[in-house]
Amino acid sequence: MGIARPRLVEMVHIRAMTEEDFDYALRLTNMLKWDYLRRDFEWMVEFEPEGCFVATEGDRRVGITTTITYQKIGWIGNVAVSPRHRRMGVGSALVERAVDYLRSRSVDFMGLYAYPEAAGFYDALGFRGDERFIRLRGQGRPYRFEGCRRMERGDLEDVMGLDAKCFGAGRGRVLKKIFEGSGGLCWVRASNGRIVGCVMGTESATGLEAGPWVCDPTHIEGAMDLLKAFLSNARGERVGLVVPARSPMLIDGLKGLGFEPDFTVLRMFYGGRKPRMEEGSMFAIESLERG
Known about the structure:
Number of strands: 13
CATH topology of the largest domain: Aminopeptidase
């Protein structure tokens, strides 16, 4: 992309991530306090075996990144470089490899979430800011809720369809994996026999992550009941979720449930090209690394 490179990056090789790299990836992301489990990298390589990368200098691993594709949408996550090798072009090389891979998969849109201090880095690589999101942390506790029930396997097809409408592309393989490993953390809301909202969750290193959390725009009045159902069954654990910053009523509602802001991220798209999404239906994203 015409970016000047320090000499070190000429010595760096980028290869596909394998199972032998998971412990390194986990140590690196734990250093950054990203709350990942080894399972997260197992999933990413399973989803995109040729699209997850490790940068090496000789026999030393110095950085990672992952990608995932959803039909016309590609997502980049987990761009991390070992402390001694930062500001040497390794991160840029990893992102460029990820972009090249997503191009090879013929996606129309490429997105990622960036911490504010890294936005300039991604801007120099062709990504443009879209909107801010806020991560909040709370804790599971009992609440009264109505009209929600635990998600069943038979709900998967309808949940996938609702999520695809909200996100702009099908994420069925991810949602299926979350459901299979959720331990009963997935909830749905139905109206006239049709699924109109859902919230799903996974374990993290420090508790639980809620997302995706989506609702049909004609039934958003029941969205908070879905989260209350999730929190009521979260066994008192810490819960994190990432929501659009443009929704002050949502954020105020979460604060009323004891959530507190943790940090912000900026959603960015390559070349500023953004897919069509039902933004008002997306209450919480699935994850920072997978969109």
